[in-house]
UniProtKB/TrEMBL annotation:
The gene is pyrD. FMN binds at K45, T46, N128, K165, V193, G220, G248, G249, G270, T271. InterPro entries: Aldolase_TIM, DHO_dehydrogenase, DHOD_1A, Dihydroorotate_DH_1, Dihydroorotate_DH_1_2, Dihydroorotate_DH_cat, Dihydroorotate_DH_CS. Its main location: cytoplasm. This is Dihydroorotate dehydrogenase. Its cofactor is FMN. It comes from Streptococcus iners subsp. hyiners. It holds the Pfam family DHO_dh. Its EC number is 1.3.-.-.
Amino acid sequence: MVSIATRLGGFSFDNCLMNAAGVWCMTKEELAAVKDSVAGTFVTKTATLDYRAGNPEPRYQNVPLGSINSMGLPNQGLAYYLDYLLELQETEPNRTFVLSLVGMSPDETHEILRRVEASDFNGLIELNLSCPNVPGKPQIAYDFETTETILHEVFSYFTKPLGIKLPPYFDIVHFDQAAAIFNKFPLKFVNCVNSIGNGLYIEDEQVVIKPKNGFGGIGGEYIKPTALANVHAFYQRLKPEIQIIGTGGVLTGRDAFEHILCGASMVQIGTTLQKEGLAAFERITEELQAIMAEKGYEKIEDFRGKLRYMD
Ligand code: DHB
């Protein structure tokens, strides 16, 4: 029997597929639906300290090869997600879920993380260093100095299992520099990749989303090669204690298989989940299991990271 169970940050999951932050995760109802699907776990919408309405609509659009969005970090605020996660710790004590968060400033990020540290939350935490859509706020992870400073400060007080969500990088030197920084810290995982930031999609001579004159993060089929490159680049460079979550361009079981082949221990589904709904988890689970069965792989460790190069 083929298993797609996995481990991440010391926790076990019976399915290596889950949602990507931003999709099916804004409310408790959506999170509960992902939890009760075949997905291994869920991640919340990235939480800020307080509720945010986000950017004006339309701010998300499906397009033929993927999606474009400039949501602007709409979310219910930290307490909402933390309360729900604490509730689940009582009702589903054998499962582990993921809290995504970031502050609107470094001070707010620390305030949020201190609250999580002080709480009874015992799951995984994903610090989002790659939100591309808040006007006037550059992505943290494209500024290596700021990234290192924040991580240094965080790990002076934060002891719970923490990983980071990264934007795509596009240069080998940047992979080297970023990995050298991440290897200095006791991170449990890096999640590669967030959307390719600030693309532009045009229809009938007009942009398709309202914020930022149409500029937005690109997801879906467009981004798989970039996502796989980032997963594998960090798999090659990071110390083995830092695991990889693969996100980007997962439409089929084959795409999930390729993320795992590049080194991913968990695979997240964003645009495809938005387009297809929760049925995507079942379909991609079955497709991935069929590929593994055909190749004689019984578990994901049989092929994880085993991408072959040419001589
Ligand atoms: C938003 C988009 C992102 O890609 C992200 O990582 C966080 C927030 C947003 O626009 O809401």
